Amino acid sequence: xxxxxxxxxxxxxxxxxxxxxxxxxxxxxxxxxxxxxxxxxxxxxxxxxxxxxxxxxxxxxxxxxxxxxxxxxxxxxxxxxxxxxxxxxxxxxxxxxxxxxxxxxxxxxxxxxxxxxxxxxxxxxxxxxxxxxxxxxxxxxxxxxxxxxxxxxxxxxxxxxxxxxxxxxxxxxxxxxxxxxxxxxxxxxxxxxxxxxxxxxxxxxxxxxxxxxxxxxxxxxxxxxxxxxxxxxxxxxxxxxxxxxxxxxxxxxxxxxxxxxxxxxxxx
Length: 268
Prior knowledge:
Elements: H1 2-19, E1 23-26, E2 31-32, E3 45-48, H2 51-57, H3 75-78, H4 102-110, E4 116-117, E5 125-127, E6 130-131, E7 138-139, E8 145-149, H5 153-158, H6 166-173, E9 179-183, H7 184-190, H8 204-217, H9 224-238, E10 261-262
């Protein structure tokens, strides 16, 4: 009888463990649930009971910039100076002077296995293994990948970054929390679109959560028409309702990615 009770208790504990999956926050501040391709790779993380708890733990202490009620009417004046990429610095920077610019740092950080470098200096990555967050497709050749700004630079410019200093914009452009290695074709199709215009084929709620955490952390504001859509998207994810395609523009290019493994270095 005693053995039966022990077995029943073990079963209850086991079921409870699976019923509430731990959400992991990486050292770079990204929240990963079980749907994330990096979930099982993470060894050093802070555990949370839910995605919402993880996201809220990462909120920036700064108060977000709040617009005046007539901000929409003033939009043309705020955007008087047009966006250009050089407003955010000369491009990928080597912030720690180790010969690797930000693109190479992202490739090293996000590879699910040890990367191979082009030479002994270890400045440029030759191959690795990357899982695109937008499609869950596995890539082995870094030339297949762009490094995407989750919150696009042009979008940020139109939502408050035009009032930052040059140094603040350079820091934003090279912030690894805002960067993901993804298919070049999808990165260019996304362009400078926000959540109300584009969502990835896969991991939509994770993408929405990351976009919003970065936006709020940097004090980037929304126009009233955008705010309503963003609030609905976030609510859908909190209530475990996958955002519907009808609410966004998921471009036809997404249909191209129907091959699970890609790259000349073969499958893992």
